[in-house]
Amino acid sequence: MDARYKSREIERRSLDVDGLKRSFLEWLVYSVGKDARAATRRDWFHTVALAVRDRLVDRWMDTTRTYYQQDAKRVYYLSLEFLIGRLLTNSLANLGITDQCRQALDRIGLNLDDVVEAEPDAALGNGGLGRLAACFLDSMASEALPGYGYGIRYEFGLFEQRFEHGWQVEYPEQWLQFGNPWEFPRPEVLYPVQFYGRVEEFRDSVGERAYRWVDAERVLAMAYDTPVVGYGGDTINTLRLWSARATRDFNFGHFNDGAYMKAVEQKVLTENLSRVLYPNDATEGGKELRLKQEYFFTSASLQDILRRYLQHHSNFDSLPDKAAIQLNDTHPAIGIAELMRLLVDQHGVLWDKAWDITRATFSYTNHTLLPEALEAWPVRMMERVLPRHMQIIYEINAKFLNRSKARAAGDNARLSRLSLIDERGDRRVRMGNLAFLGSHKVNGVSALHTELMKQTVFADFHAEFPERINNKTNGITPRRWLHQANQPLAALITSRIGNGWIKDLGQIKALAEKADDLVFREEFRRAKRKNKKRLAAYIARQTGVDVQVDSLFDVQVKRMHEYKRQLLNILQAIALYNEMRDNPTVSWVPVTKIFAGKAAPSYHMAKLIIKLINDVAKVVNHDPSVHDNLKIVLLPNYNVTAAEIIMPAADLSEQISTAGMEASGTGNMKLALNGALTIGTLDGANVEIREHVGDDNIFIFGLTAEEVNDLRASGGFNPREVIASNPSLKRALDMISTGVFSPDDPHRYHPILQALTDGGDHFLVTADFAEYCEAQQEAMDLYRDQEEWTRKAILNTANMGWFSSDRTIMEYATEIWDVHPVKPEHPAETEG
Ligand code: 6GP
Questions:
Q1: So what does this thing catalyse (predicted)?
Q2: Are 559 and 598 contacting, i.e. CB atoms less than 8 angstroms apart?
């Protein structure tokens, strides 16, 4: 072998500073094709990413090979969204080579932090559901679980949000514009996926009735693989994302007609399937393209899963022992009908057997109870787009309803609620019901949410299958959300209790006793202050607003949604602003209200609330009479990267959804783990956070889920009365309605005021306002006592160990998937 080539081989593996430096210089020239003098920051990012990628390929292959050789049971996490964020810092930290990399770059005269900034944020998701999927990938790899992620390689991720005159404006997000160094295209891994056409009945070889799907349009799904590095770098799993490709024969038909342009047009249309992520969070658009996206990635994934299974098996009897398929919400639920189709139509498995296999293989996670988010596809659309699946769904439904207890009891109302078809109005397929019926386990994402699932949307199914619903409270990966995002605190923790917490977050409990240690509190505060300085600089860059580092950083970051009640927060801000102006001699606790979050482009109310926050901010931030004691900022373009700056810097975490409406929340966990105190309702995982951090270390206010339910059911709630009896609320609303914040358009906020009054205040903003203000006052009072505040902050961090996604994922592994850790076998490392 050429000596130079051979030396490169060794360097590809070397983890020391010299080896890294040499391979950076090599990569820059030979793969990025740039001279060090001409290289941009982006060139260096690609260089470093490619060199780091080299260092994980061997172990990635070892991992995959070990799973294959042991024919291990794998879990397949099917998700329409993976909200990954940047990968460089994550890969370096999980490989344990951050310091070496930093030094190697130093020697070339570069700063790692600058290089990291050139990486685009992979935003293939909207919010909680997508970010949870990304945390789960990290935990599966870190726990050595044979886990695969399957999704779509969207060319355009979640839109970029900008504010123009205070209004949200969406711009396309182009994360792939300059290439993606982490992915491996697999042009040979291609599966056909069909749409439209019709179903033909025929007699099979033994004379049985059988069906085939004919005259369909075909699209190809092409795989792109991204390695998922577990902590310590031993296990490296795979995220396989599908991209749509037009088939060649599809185009040839047109060429023969001489219609070249038409052929190319058709190709573009076909490939639109993986073009863009739908920007709705927890609401369903009902668009045909969305249904096609769901089927596209689900079908390709199932074909891939069966191919892998058939490498070791000749029939499907043991599929459930070798594959667990988790449906991340109902988006991939069509997979239940698709697996039935593949087994029955393509592999000749008998129906009942196929159904047993399907149910034993699938499980389903529900992420929201919001009725508008429960997917229900028009039967007519389904019949047209997926005709064979529609038949299969009818068949599943008929067999189920025939056997159900409701039929026996003659309870027709119940029967129609259990049906996979909603017969009211234009008929629709209820994907939640299909997912429930086709799964052996169904889970909610917090204790409260799971209880509510049993009582509400799935009450009838729960009565039918009382063992099926179970709870898996969400978690977050401590690697990204503490170890990487909050280096000052991570270093402090490690200095006291060692670094075992990174892998076993339960160990962080040992910090609890340090809450009474004056020196530790001082250091904890210093770490927080450092993070706040970093956020303040970011705020200044992004919004031009200067905030006081020593003010109380009060943070609400999440998608803009009425049920999350950013409106409640901004109303309290207005009330506080009024109090400060009324009492200029009082020494106020300075407060900085920090908001961030995107609204779905078609969600007008959420966008109006964005404008309101920006309008209020403009008035408050420029009013000298509050002496900088109150600042309000709404940061644009909230994404994973922004969250990594915001979470570590927060003092107060706003988790103020209308009780019963937030399934779990995960931002609540990130903030508490980073030492923020929560102000929140008893909703979602807030309930469990309170149990872990203790009642004294959290500010709970407002109606409970039960009270919300009763209040709404009674019909006796009158927001106008509530407003009339609360002068500070009334004054805040009057200011909005008289155009104090919108002099250019005094009626701008009429729809908001309308919703709060005549609209009946569905989200109970007015009902919770008074208690919320009291809780805010309590928080401000406590903040004056920095020692006491810090003590509670430390207790929050110390008691959040249970909320690691490692705990969550191991619960899924043992209680749902029956999947076990598999240690990759590494052949003796070759020496070049
Ligand atoms: C979200 C829930 O709203 C949030 O409470 C939860 O923490 C998160 O899922 C992860 O479980 N739901 C969605 O993002 C969604 O799109 C269909 O639901």
A1: [(1->4)-alpha-D-glucosyl](n) + phosphate = [(1->4)-alpha-D-glucosyl](n-1) + alpha-D-glucose 1-phosphate
A2: yes
Residues 797 and 730 in one domain: yes
Distance 474 CA to ligand 1 centre (A): 10
The answer to whether the CB of 116 falls within 8 A of the CB of 88 is yes
Angle between helices 518-543 and 786-798 (to 10 degrees): 90
Q: Is 282 in the pocket of ligand 1 (CB under 6 A)?
A: yes
Task: Please tell me if the CB atom of residue 128 comes closer than 6 angstroms to any atom of ligand 1.
Answer: yes
Which of 241, 306, 303 is CA-nearest to residue 277?
241
Instruction: Report d(CA 243, CA 297) in Å as an integer.
Output: 9
Query: 463 and 512: one domain?
Result: no
Does the beta carbon of 666 sit less than 6 angstroms from any atom of ligand 1?
A: yes
The verdict on 510 and 644 lying in the same domain is: yes
Residues of the chain with pLDDT under 70: 1-11, 249-258, 828-832
Residue 627 C-alpha to ligand 1 middle, in angstroms?
Answer: 39
415 and 369 in a single domain? The answer is: yes
What pLDDT score was predicted for residue 11?
63
Q: Which of 129, 370, 372, 653 to mutate to test the pocket of ligand 1 (most atoms within 8 A of CB)?
A: 129
Q: Are residues 353 and 446 in the same domain?
A: yes
Ligand 1, atom 7: closest residue by C-alpha: 665
514 Cβ neighbours under 8 A, 6+ residues apart: 496, 520, 794, 798
**451 and 516 part of one domain:** no
179-201 per-residue burial string, b: 16 or more CB within 10 A, e: under 16: ebbbbeeeeebebebbbebebee
Domain range spanning residue 584? 485-814
Beta carbons of 604 and 741 less than 8 angstroms apart: no
Q: Is 99 exposed, middle or buried (0-12, 13-18, 19+ CB in 10 A)?
A: exposed
- β-sheet bridge partners, residue 242: 152, 223
pLDDT at position 262? 79
Residues 138 and 242 in one domain: yes
pLDDT for res 5: 54
Do 578 and 662 share a structural domain? yes
